[in-house]
Write a structure and sequence with these properties.
alpha+beta, PH-domain like, 5 domains, eight-stranded mixed β-sheet, two-stranded antiparallel ribbon, 23 helices, 12 strands, 8% strand, disordered C terminus, PH-like_dom_sf, transport
């Protein structure tokens, strides 16, 4: 049977391997097919893109009869020559100087760049692209720097007809380049620079530091020359007398070039073109712009340049420099700073921006002398002076203020998370202090103080749960736990002064409005006192579970541990001037009382169990060594002295000795707790234990009393209990005059008299029986006396 099972198992394993192999072959075939399909799709996309560009050109020709090429070609040629002069020292690139048409033959998908004859490649090379998160290698990118565009391509697969495949293109005005210095030798890459493109950044790495420097120099020079060329072309277009207000620019998204329409187009040609399109595309008539023959000359192209017809506030602001223009970049800068966790920069930006916005919205600003034209233009409309600042309405400034407030809320939430999660992340005190200071600068001083205390609570909880291990002796563990708690309280007090009270007080002192530093210090003191007492309450709850509810510690060990904990609390109360000791006692007083009642119940049960097994044998029956030890204990307890030890010591029973020892240990334990609320509980437990002992004496059997030897032992132990044990412990408890103690003594004396009464009655019965037996003898012997 076992052989068949093995054969079936081996056959199933071989079939499974075969099936996995076949599935793997199918997966490889599917991957190849997907790769081929992807290449085909790219080719189709390039063809459609080229056809779309041709159709757009034909449409323009059919409407306007002519397309004027880019007027900036000559100017751009001048810029190219200047860039080439700057890049003479750079290493020669493989495809430097080729046109966009030739680039489209190398890069798959680059046909969108064809259409501008002046566009050509300045420089190209291979760069390693890295991940911005963990700096891992992503791919090897081929970067082409054109006269007006940055092209990033990837190396194509072996089956493609193009050596490169287009990944992304960026206009030279739409990105920035920054150095990426290595901050950590183990993680941060060397020879890297960052391409800053909203909303994400890209990281590239070169082979050597000199290559990185050359790339940064090249990109900065190309971007600068491109901007200068654009500004030069714009000034020429503005001063050109042939360009009227009816001329406009069209941005061809496919060819990525700026081409100008003819300066003059007759109304008849436009109407004819509109009719031709309407008849050709009847379903799209609603999408075409209606033509009004009467107002045609007054209509203007919606794509006109902003420098030709300036009517918006944004255009007006761009025509002059203002000291408040930087405010409009603050929301984006805040998003970047918060995402990069640069909280210090974000806080400084918010504080500075809010101060400027408050001055603008309240009208408490002084305009610079350079804006004389603006002031003169505003002086013509005096009713609007207070409603506009830097050609922007008050509503725009209010919207900007709301955006910055939204960023401030995001920053506040990030700082709150920084403080709350600092304990879990093992955050350093410096980072916590920085977060507290930044919240204080944002006007959240009270919130910063509360979150700091939350952080310290988590640190203490982690120290008590994970920092102290329960191993070996329970008393040692409890002592370490108490030391950890009180040491953390002391450390919190020090860090509270250094990280919260002092820095936030300085921030409040630098502000003219708000609460005074003295008031803030008082508020901080109240918060710290309240937090300390709350943490003490939590620690008391943890002690209740460990000492009482778990039943893992004896009553004496619990009392000894409580004494050590109270000593630590008294010392810290003296250092911090916070009544930690009283709070801890108040938190544990009910638990002590419950533990004392439980211990009293155990003592009563022990008395009853000993009474069931009582044989009324004295200590004299024990070996000499044990006798000496018990007598020494009784002398140490103060129950016997050197004069009474010989008379009473050896005549006591083991039950009486155990009763004395348990009562003494119980009273010592309660005294170690040093809780005045336990005085009545201690007296009650003492009386209950002795009442149990009294019940045992009252339930003595007549057989034991009839035996003269046992009867004398019973009487001696009961008299010793009345005359020595009760007065001794009553003096220790200061309850000699207590009514319950006096009632207990009376009950013990009554029990003693009853036992002695039974002894006397027994003696009388024996005497009477003896007399009767004598009379009977005399009658038989006829000898009467």
């Amino acid at each position: 049977m076992l052989e068949k099972v093995n054969i079936i198992s081996s056959e199933a394993a071989s079939k499974m391997k075969r099936a996995v192999f076949e599935n793997y072959k199918l997966f490889i075939k599917a991957g190849k097919a997907a790769s081929q399909l992807e290449n085909t799709m790219h080719q189709i996309h390039n063809e459609f893109t080229e056809k779309q560009r041709v159709m757009n050109t034909l449409t323009e020709l059919s409407l306007f009869n002519d397309i004027i090429t880019d007027v900036s070609a000559s100017e751009r040629a001048v810029s190219i020559s200047q860039v080439d002069e700057k890049t003479e020292n750079l290493p020669c690139s493989e495809h430097s100087g080729i046109s966009a048409t030739q680039l489209a033959e190398l890069v798959e998908g680059a046909s969108v760049l064809v259409g501008d004859s002046s566009r050509r490649v300045i420089f190209d090379g291979d760069l390693r692209e890295l991940s911005m998160n963990d700096f891992t290698f992503v791919c090897m990118a081929r970067v082409f720097v054109l006269t007006d565009t940055l092209v990033i391509a990837y190396h194509s697969q072996s089956g493609s007809s193009y050596p490169y495949r287009l990944q992304s293109t960026y206009d030279l005005n739409n990105f920035a380049v920054a150095n990426f210095p290595p901050m950590d030798r183990l993680q941060t890459p060397n020879n890297a620079f960052k391409l800053i493109v909203f909303p994400t950044n890209r990281l590239f790495q070169t082979e050597t530091p000199s290559d990185k420097k050359r790339w940064l120099t090249l990109l900065d020079e190309a971007m600068r020359k491109y901007r200068n060329t654009n500004s030069y072309v714009a000034s020429n277009l503005k001063s050109d007398s042939h360009i009227t207000t009816n001329s406009y620019d069209v941005l061809d998204h496919n060819s990525m070039k700026l081409s100008m329409l003819p300066p003059k187009v007759s109304a008849e040609a436009v109407v004819a073109g509109h009719k031709a399109l309407s008849s050709t595309l009847p379903d799209c008539v609603d999408l075409l712009t209606p033509i009004d023959k009467l107002d045609l000359s007054a209509k203007k192209n919606p794509f006109d340049d902003s420098h030709e017809t300036v009517k918006s506030p944004m255009a007006k602001v761009g025509s002059h420099k203002s000291r408040h223009n930087w405010l409009w970049d603050v929301p984006e800068d805040l998003d970047v700073a918060i995402s990069e966790r640069n909280f210090q920069r974000a806080t400084n930006l918010i504080v500075k921006a809010k101060e400027s916005l408050n001055q603008i919205l309240t009208g408490d600003i002084s305009k610079p002398s350079m804006d004389t034209n603006i002031q003169s233009s505003n002086s013509s409309t005096p009713g609007q002076i207070s409603d506009t600042v830097d050609h922007r309405s008050k509503t725009d400034w209010e919207k900007l203020s709301k955006r910055i407030e939204r960023n401030e809320r995001n920053l506040t939430e990030s700082l709150q998370y920084e403080l709350v999660s600092a304990a879990c992340r093992h955050g350093a005190p410096k980072s916590v202090k920085a977060a507290v200071s930044q919240l204080g600068l944002l006007g959240k001083a009270s919130l910063a103080a509360e979150l700091f205390l939350v952080y310290r609570s988590q640190v203490m909880t982690k120290s008590l749960t994970h920092g102290v291990h329960q191993e070996g002796n329970q008393l040692i563990y409890l002592n370490k736990l108490s030391l950890t708690f009180h040491r953390n309280l002391a450390e919190t007090a020090v860090e509270w002064c250094q990280s919260v009270v002092k820095p936030l007080g300085e921030i409040l002192a630098s502000k003219t409005n708000g609460i005074s530093p003295q008031q803030f210090e008082n508020i901080c003191s109240l918060k710290f006192y309240s937090w300390t007492l709350d943490e003490t309450e939590k620690f008391g709850q943890q002690l209740r579970v460990l000492l009482i509810d778990s039943h893992a510690v004896s009553f004496y060990s619990m009392a000894y541990a409580a004494q050590r904990i109270k000593a630590h609390a008294d010392k810290l109360t003296e250092l911090l001037s916070v009544d930690i000791s009283s709070t801890l006692n108040r938190s544990l007083s009910r638990a002590w009382k419950r533990a004392a009642d439980e211990q009293s119940r155990l003592l009563c049960e022990a008395v009853e169990n000993r009474a069931k097994q009582e044989s009324w044998e004295t200590l004299s029956n024990l070996p000499k060594g044990e006798q000496d030890k018990i007598i020494a204990d009784l002398l140490e307890f103060g129950i016997l002295n050197q004069y009474t030890a010989a008379d009473y010591g050896l005549k006591l029973t083991m039950s009486t000795y155990y009763l004395i020892r348990s009562l003494r240990q119980f009273i010592q334990s309660v005294h170690l707790l040093n809780c005045s609320e336990l005085d009545l509980t201690l007296i009650s437990c003492f009386v209950q234990t002795l009442n149990s002992e009294l019940d045992c004496f009252e339930r003595v059997s007549p057989i034991d009393i009839s035996d003269p030897a046992r009867q004398s032992v019973i009487i001696i132990n009961l008299e010793f209990l009345i005359k020595t044990i009760v007065p001794k412990f009553a003096n220790i408890l200061n309850c000699s005059e207590n009514s319950t103690i006096q009632q207990l003594v009376c009950s013990l004396k009554t029990s003693l008299q009853n036992i002695k009464g039974l002894e006397e009655e027994e003696t009388v019965v024996v005497t009477t029986a003896a007399k009767k037996s004598n009379v009977v003898v005399d009658e038989e012997g006829n000898d009467v006396i």
